[in-house]
Amino acid sequence: EVLARATRAVERHYARRGKGEFFEAIRPHLAGDGEAAPYAELALSLGGSEGALKVAVHRARKRFASALRAEIGEQVGSR
Predict the structure, then answer these.
(1) CA–CA separation, 29 and 78 (whole Å)
(2) Which entry of 62, 67, 68, 69 is 20 to 30 Å from 76 by CA?
(3) How far, in Å, CA of 74 to CA of 79, rounded?
């Protein structure tokens, strides 16, 4: 549940910026899912470069890590 809430927080961040579809495309890359499309293929479908996509995924992972720490902090603090 904590992971799901952190993911939803990041999803909301992207949606507020009009990038909800982009987030859905990179979501499998947040946790290094083996089922994720290769970066080159995904970059091509999104109309950008592979390098730019890698940077975007890196930033999304950092945002996810921050959201996860916040969720864990709330869980620990509420006990």
Answers:
(1) 31
(2) 62
(3) 9
